Amino acid sequence: MNTIEKKLSQWRGRIKLKTVALWVMIPLCLLAGLCTLPILRFMGELGDFSTSFRTRLIPQILNTQASFVNLESLNRSIAVLKYSTDNERARRAYIDSWSVVMESLYDRPKATQDLLYRMADDLNGLWDVRRDRGGC
């Protein structure tokens, strides 16, 4: 046996698989743990953001849907007020449209409140014209 083979056989006896596994696996496990922590933190923050986003968004969606329903109701009431030949039905449509406009004033910013006040004045004018013309 030559000297290189003797040295290799001596090294094989000294290096154990357990030792190599520990020297390789411990740093790999630490590295995996250090890489996982930021990902878990990011996922937690993303979950918190989506929860707060959802809690803010759902009331806004419901408010938008209610506004759309009010708009459709106002559209129908104005059409009845304008074209109906039945005076009682026209009076009821005027009251309904007036109540929709006044209800909408409560949850609006100042700029749109002014527009709604103008719309209420226009409704009064439409009712006055109808009353003068139709004798309601």
Care to describe what's here?
The protein has 136 residues and is an all-alpha fold. It has one domain. Helices cover 90% and strands 0% of the residues. It contains four helices and no strands. The protein has helices spanning 3-14, 17-83, 87-104, 110-134. Helix 2 (17-83) runs antiparallel to helix 3 (87-104). It is rod-shaped and about 125 Å long. The termini are far apart.
Helix coverage percent: over 70%
Order of helices and strands: HHHH
Number of domains: 1
Q: Bin the strand percentage.
A: under 5%
Q: What is the radius of gyration computed over CA atoms, rounded to a whole number of angstroms? A: 39 Å
- Count of individual beta strands: 0
Q: What tags apply to this protein structure?
A:
mainly alpha; 136 residues; 4 helices; 0% strand
List the helices and strands and how they pair.
Blueprint: H1 3-14, H2 17-83, H3 87-104, H4 110-134
Helix pairs in contact: 2-3, 3-4
Please give a quick description of this structure:
The chain is mostly helical and 136 residues long.
